[in-house]
Design goal:
Layout: E1 2-7, H1 14-28, E2 36-41, E3 55-57, H2 76-81, E4 86-89, H3 92-97, H4 102-114, E5 118-123, H5 127-132, H6 135-143, E6 153-157, H7 171-182, E7 189-192, H8 200-206, E8 209-212, H9 219-226
Parallel strand pairs: 1-2, 1-8, 2-3, 4-5, 5-6, 6-7, 7-8
The chain binds 1,3-dihydroxyacetonephosphate.
């Protein structure tokens, strides 16, 4: 089973996201996709009922609370309204732009683990760490903050230098990290960072799946990737 996930980030309106999900679900009904697990992560204002036949709707981020005085945040209550039980935690954009450190990510992980969510936990090194040669140790340290044996965990390896740059990590680079991470956790390990329809099939051959950003924004492009 391969996991194919689209992270819309802060793109697509509520209307566009809904049309996208309806179209993708109907495109997928035309073929057999038994060996693919497909997810989309719309922005929080575009969340929709998680009731599609062939795709699962997930949240890109959520506060670790049921509800309360957390101005500007989305809480579990809001995800429950849509029957959403899949979440991305620790995306490098959350870590770098919104200052979510390993402790915050771990707190969110514990909260959503205890609420029986499927957690896509993102890790990945910067270019500086890659060039220092210490990237495997760094990935291990990021995972040391969470229970890597959680049975509903997906590890998303997303090297920061490959995100949104058009420079994907090579199959050899991805494979090295996946092999290393497999010694730490039995969770599926997926790759993200400049995945597109041209490189997706090579990456899918050596990984348990892919997390696609920009190339998931058009439903036709994402569908081509799903079929790769
Ligand atoms: P890009 O595919 O745009 O590089 O984004 C990857 C990503 O961050 C997915 O979470």
């Amino acid at each position: 089973m391969k996991i194919i996930a689209g992270n819309f980030k802060s793109n697509l309106t509520r209307k566009d996201s809904l049309e996208y999900a309806i179209k993708l679900d109907s495109m997928l009904s035309n073929r057999m996709h038994n060996n693919k697990d497909i997810y989309i992560f719309p922005s929080n204002t575009s969340l929709m009922q998680n009731n599609y036949q062939y795709i699962t709707i997930g949240a890109q981020n959520c506060n670790d609370s049921n509800s309360g005085a957390f101005t500007g945040e989305t809480s579990l209550l809001h995800l429950n309204e849509f029957n959403i039980d899949t979440i991305l935690i620790g995306h490098s954009e959350r870590r770098n732009l919104f200052f979510e450190n390993d402790n915050i990510c771990a707190r969110k992980f514990e909260y959503f683990k205890s609420n029986n969510f499927k957690i896509f936990y993102c890790i990945g090194e910067s270019l500086e760490i890659r060039n220092s040669g210490k990237y495997l140790d760094f990935l291990r340290s990021q995972l040391s903050f969470i229970d890597a044996s959680f049975n509903n965990l997906v590890i998303a390896y997303e090297p920061i230098w490959a995100i949104g740059t058009g420079v994907n990590a090579s199959v050899e680079q991805i494979n090295e990290c996946i092999e290393y991470l497999k010694n730490i956790s039995n969770a599926p390990i997926i790759y993200g960072g400049s995945v597109n329809k041209n490189n997706s099939s090579d990456i899918l051959e050596i990984s348990d799946g892919i997390l696609v950003g920009s190339a998931s924004l058009s439903v036709d492009s994402f569908y081509q990737i799903i079929n790769s």
